[in-house]
Amino acid sequence: xxxxxxxxxxxxxxxxxxxxxxxxxxxxxxxxxxxxxxxxxxxxxxxxxxxxxxxxxxxxxxxxxxxxxxxxxxxxxxxxxxxxxxxxxxxxxxxxxxxxxxxxxxxxxxxxxxxxxxxxxxxxxxxxxxxxxxxxxxxxxxxxxxxxxxxxxxxxxxxxxxxxxxxxxxxxxxxxxxxxxxxxxxxxxxxxxxxxxxxxxxxxxxxxxxxxxxxxxxxxxxxxxxxxxxxxxxxxxxxxxxxxxxxxxxxxxxxxxxxxxxxxxxxxxxxxxxxxxxxxxxxxxxxxxxxxxxxxxxxxxxxxxxxxxxxxxxxxxxxxxxxxxxxxxxxxxxxxxxxxxxxxxxxxxxxxxxxxxxxxxxxxxxxxxxxxxxxxxxxxxxxxxxxxxxxxxxxxxxxxxxxxxxxxxxxxxxxxxxxxxxxxxxxxxxxxxxxxxxxxxxxxxxxxxx
Length: 450
Prior knowledge:
This protein is an all-alpha fold.
């Protein structure tokens, strides 16, 4: 008989699982921040090239990471049913699909200069970005395999190792960047290529650590994850592909919304674009908390689904939503109370343009406060829907919300209606709010009833 949990017990279980995932997501962001800061010390053209190259890599990565994210609910449901063989099969096929995606997308990185020139980028920056991507592209496969293993371990509620492995990766990345970008400690000075080598090395090292943990930890040996790795399981592969492709496309649609907003803000002005970038970075840090809680909700919903525990699934979903909304309200208060000091943390306030950036960024953080709640609800709804293995319809709901509503409304408010940057962000709020409403209605209409 399934044990009925109280709401506080659901909250404790969600936080125990979710907080290490929150930490790992924040640490993952720190990898990007350290690359940006250290290349900024090295040179302006190199910084621009790596920012551009990293954007190309990231957009490709989030598409391929859909397979890894599909593994999480599939493993959770298999565990809920007590089917340990299926745990191995689903994870293994997620690893297979990630390898295939990495191989298929590498030509994009090899010939990236031509693609970037066609997108009207500066020739010097495009050439340096290609130098970066030709090396960094080799990191796509290990980066995706790491994501699959993180999903597998999260579904097994082994989230502490995910956190510590990511923190270790940040430390290693800083050290390797210091050596290879600048030529310190007797290493050659390689600039953007050094940053790429550091990234690939960190991804490979993280993969080895997680593989070792998954293969040799006594409690996990019973899954025999890498036993006869070469053997295909076509039904499991099809299921991971069927669930993972819409997840990747959903992430791509959301990422594209914010990429398009940056492009349009660039049409308004340099100061506005700088403030936009800072405000988005602040919002993204808060968003990582919601992502971690959403991942926990995916695992717990998948477990409940596998056990046939409809009441536990619905109660757990309510608690996860409440936790995410509670944190969102704290961020709303913070953004509205201390906007200028938050923006100033990212600037040298002695520079003359800083005052303008702080003033404009303060306005944008008010809109970031508005979309905190919508962003929390939409990412939590996606996590819950993935837990019940519902990904195709949510993909279309997200695409319509972001691309049919969000981007056109942002453009209309910013330019034809003359609202500028605030109008652009109001459009983001509207798109995210529509997505949150549609996705949450979808989940509660699909959630099994007790």
